[in-house]
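Example record

The entry below shows one chain as it appears in the dataset: sequence first, then structure tokens.
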Amino acid sequence: MHDTWPLLQHSDFPAIERGRVSTLQLNLGYLCNLSCIHCHVNAGPRRTEQMDQDTMRLALRVAERLQVETLDLTGGSPEMNPHFRWLVQQARAQGLHVMDRLNPTIMEEPGYEWVGRFLADHAVEVVASLPCYSQANVDEQRGGGVFESSIRALQSLNALGYGHPGNALTLNLVYNPNGAFLPPEQDTLEAQYHRLLGDNFGIVFNHLFALANMPIQRYGSWLLSKGHFATYMATLRDAHRDENLAAVMCRSSLSVDYNGELYDCDFNQMLKLPLAGRAHPTHLRELLEQAVPRAIGVAGHCYGCTAGQGSSCGGALS
């Protein structure tokens, strides 16, 4: 796989600082039942990295000390971590809002039939990836049969109460482009998702998050192999908008890898880019006594968050 870091590390991206941390994003491991082209984590069925229970306990202590409001669980497929259910139960008992970045097809894997009911029983916000409402586009990115499996999973979440207006069970969907271009305008795309998924499959959901693909790991390697890397980077940089800098997710969150090491975001985690000013990764345990660093580490890939309408883990910024 091609390494994009040498092409990203020297950048003129503006300096930014963190405010109060309201979200702790835990990457529970890189194991996933799929290997998607656009994946910035390079997750897949052969990955073995998994967060252990001791690290989860430490994360919960740090969340309490920092008065964090949201625990954002990601992967890989977070549910494939053997301690996923324990972590969610502990976090909810602690009063944390929990988000699960769900690959819907996991719900159809043998041994994971519990996922939907468990999430509903614990009022977990679901952020489900469905990179397009077109079967051809989804299967091109994720493999044959993935679209149909995802649709069945979303229908089962609806049956559990997710996504219905006025219901407390939140179901948000995630769109990713299937090429070297920026996402379209989020509100317009969300309206199309509502109409087409509703008309064709009876699916309802709350919101759509339109995310730009990051030029790192598997997607970055794909860009290089296709000769699109330089063009895509130019697209991101030319579309940069300073007004998006105020709302990027790293200003109010911290990313934690499966070992408990801290990063400014999940993308920096994949690049092994330490917190700004640190030569080596900072561990969660240091936050039991120290303040959260304000400076944020940036590089060329950060233009993926500020280009056009902006892109963060919660979708468009403007």
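Notes for this example: The beta strands are 23-27, 70-74, 97-102, 125-129, 171-175, 207-210, 253-256, 261-263, 282-283. The chain has one domain: 5-306.
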